[in-house]
């Protein structure tokens, strides 16, 4: 209980600072805030924002006007992430009571895997997203450690003692191998139409009417119109004469948020129009994906074995989480 009393004292000190300095408190809330408290352990708004960033970027591209569909899907993603972070805090509470530890090398390896998976291996993009979310590397390190604690608790208490069979390993490997590939070597073919925000041939055109024009083109394509012909007639970039076709484009040559969506959406999906810069609106349609190499089963066998165990133990683990939640003190802010 000592760590709970310590946290209580810290929160009390913050409250006193809030009362004595409302201006400072307003600034502090702007930088960060509390999303929830679980058994005295705080989940911050910045933590939620950072975990939500990839989903937000993908949804912003799918729904560029950020209307009701965007807000609904974003709210669902945010609720899911917040609940996962709360469950993690409840598990950590139990883990700390056991006096167990997670080695530093395991945490750093997991962070690198996240950078490879979400940011295409770019540490620069990863650090930029940390900065945008006002999350320090130290805090992200702690978040990663918390995640591994959850995995360790699950492994210790809920793994099936029966080893995974070879057929189970192969099935699980085939299910996950694409997600484990080297994304920095991904390539993609797509078609693109670029509609500038200004139309020199129409003095009455505005950025809004140009956006509406781009949206109309996207609707035509979805209804079966010829993408190449529309690109040749309306696109204003170097690939218009080729019908907007671009081939063998490296994933690392694309903006991270764009590559995330293009590699996530099914082939043939029309994406956009989206405004990636001040100059205009872009419409994409993916025609082919070339995945980077996946690791051999022998190299990732421990992770695959763990995935098999997690799948087998999911029902018991979910019941465990429900028991923790039932006896926990949880407050959403």
What descriptive keywords fit this protein?
333 residues; globular; Triger factor/SurA peptide-binding fold; 4-stranded antiparallel sheet; 2 domains; alpha+beta; 12 helices; 3-stranded antiparallel sheet; Chitinase A, domain 3
Assembly state of the chains shown: single chain
Q: Please tell me the overall pLDDT.
A: 84
The level-1 CATH class of the largest domain: Mainly Alpha
What is the architecture of the largest domain at the second tier of CATH? Answer: Orthogonal Bundle
Q: Find the CATH topology of the largest domain.
A: Triger factor/SurA peptide-binding fold
Structural class comes to alpha+beta
What percent strand?
5-15%
N- to C-terminal distance: 23 Å
Give the total of domains.
Answer: 2
Dominant shape: globular
- Number of helical regions: 12
Question: Helix content range of the residues, please?
Answer: 55-70%
Order of helices and strands: HHEEHHHHHHEHHEHEEHE
CATH homologous group name of the largest domain = Porin chaperone SurA, peptide-binding domain
Radius of gyration: 24 Å
Major β-sheet annotation: 4 strands, antiparallel
Number of beta-strand segments: 7
Low-confidence stretches: 1-30
Q: What topology, given as strand order, has the largest sheet?
A: 4-3-6-5
């Amino acid at each position: 209980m000592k760590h709970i009393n310590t946290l209580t004292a810290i929160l009390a000190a913050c409250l006193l600072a809030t009362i004595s300095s409302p201006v400072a408190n307003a600034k502090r809330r702007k930088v960060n805030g509390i999303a929830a408290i679980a058994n005295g352990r705080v989940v911050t708004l910045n933590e939620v924002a950072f975990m939500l960033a990839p989903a937000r970027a993908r949804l912003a591209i799918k729904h560029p006007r950020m209307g009701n569909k965007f807000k609904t899907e974003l709210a669902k993603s945010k609720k899911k992430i917040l609940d996962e972070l709360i469950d993690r805090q409840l598990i950590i509470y139990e883990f700390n009571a056991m006096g167990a530890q997670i080695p530093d090398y395991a945490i750093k390896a997991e962070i690198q895997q996240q950078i490879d998976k979400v940011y295409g291996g770019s540490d620069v993009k990863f650090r930029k997203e940390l900065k945008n979310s006002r999350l320090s590397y130290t805090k992200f390190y702690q978040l990663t450690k918390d995640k591994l604690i959850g995995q360790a608790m699950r492994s210790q208490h809920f793994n099936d003692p029966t080893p995974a069979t070879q057929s189970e390993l192969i099935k699980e490997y085939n299910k996950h191998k694409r997600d484990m590939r080297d994304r920095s070597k991904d390539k993609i073919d797509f078609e693109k139409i670029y509609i500038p925000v200004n139309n020199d041939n129409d003095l009455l055109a505005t950025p809004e009417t140009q956006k509406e024009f781009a949206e109309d083109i996207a609707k035509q394509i979805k209804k079966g119109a010829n993408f190449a012909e529309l690109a040749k007639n309306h696109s204003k970039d170097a690939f218009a004469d080729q019908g907007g076709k671009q081939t063998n484009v490296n994933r690392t040559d694309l903006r991270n948020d764009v590559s995330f969506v293009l590699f996530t959406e099914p082939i043939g999906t029309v994406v956009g129009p989206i405004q990636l810069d001040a100059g205009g609106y872009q419409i994409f349609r993916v025609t082919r994906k070339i995945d980077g190499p996946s690791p051999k089963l022998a190299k990732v066998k421990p992770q695959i074995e763990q995935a098999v165990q997690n799948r087998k133990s999911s029902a018991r683990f979910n019941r465990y989480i429900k028991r923790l939640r039932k006896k926990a003190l949880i407050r959403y802010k």
